[in-house]
Amino acid sequence: MGKKGIIAMAVLATTLWTANAQNIDYYKPGEGEGIAYFLPKTAIEINLIATKVKYTPGDFCQYANRYLRINNVTSEPSTDWEIKKIEVRTIGVPDSTKAYIIKLSDKNVMSDIEVTENNIIRAINTSATQSVKKDYILEKSEKPENGKRYLTEEILTAGSTAKMAELTAKEIYNIRESKNLILRGQADNMPKDGESLKLIMDNLNKQEKALTEMFTGTRVTEDKLFTAIILPEKEVTNAIILRFSKKLGVLATDNLAGEPIYICVESQQPIKTTTVIEEDSKKKKKGPKGVLYNIPGKANVSIKFKGRSIFEDNNMLFAQFGTTELLVEDLFKKKVNTRVIFDAVTGGIQKIDKD
Predict the structure, then answer these.
(1) Residue 66 forms part of a structural domain
(2) What does the pLDDT average to over 59-70?
(3) What pLDDT score was predicted for residue 107?
(4) Domain range holding 209?
(5) 80 and 51 in contact (C-beta within 8 Å)?
């Protein structure tokens, strides 16, 4: 994978903790003994692939129209960028306002607590399937063939660039005529089999392309990946996530040389970050009677560039746009083997079952 721009994120690993039994309380760094974990907030990761196109004029560019009837060939080198693809996904980050500690006791049993590398809860009494971050395939064109290696002695000893261009054009036409004769079966030395025919045609095409590029110039393309991350604490209207310039490529938000790429995040329901259960528990300064989890809310996410939508999803789930609820402690008594898998991106329950 090519070089990343802006921000790079690591793949989240998981850690497994084992305890005999638990009492859950609010976690404060440096206080209490037990297993600390977080519920997540949901961030947006924007992955943009841009293609760099480098144009190098050919030695005979000024003669392209005269000898090959090819118009609009420029003699000026240039580097341009194009937006090739944009993909958007959600990722989980620890919510510092939803930090808890599982203290050891003898009443309830949560034998296995699985958390991510940054301590977001993943599973209780079972193991969650690991998500693998997508590895983007970045394309890069092959190095152009040097047309000079196919110039004949007559071309190389010509007295002027104009004469060299004229003779090179004639060589291109000769190659085309040879290809036509072979395809019609009229060549003096026809290939004996299909494999030989393919080998000869490939070689002739290679020569023709290399010599033609001495007039038209070459274009070398290379993909590059840029990543931006935004954590919407509330609804977002036309926030700039990146900038893009046809000449400079993808730029930071404060670089005015590029045009802005905007993101909008619109919640589909009223934003509520704390439930009555959690508020009452904090007032009493006691931990929740069970395991807190998120019920995520939906939001519309759209990304625009130059007034045109380049991404839109009306069903993205966000922890901070939903509510926090409680799995009661009775589910984790010794005689009940309750297994829960959480979504480490939203904090919602993916699966729950018991014996």
Answers:
(1) yes
(2) 96
(3) 55
(4) 56-75+141-220
(5) no
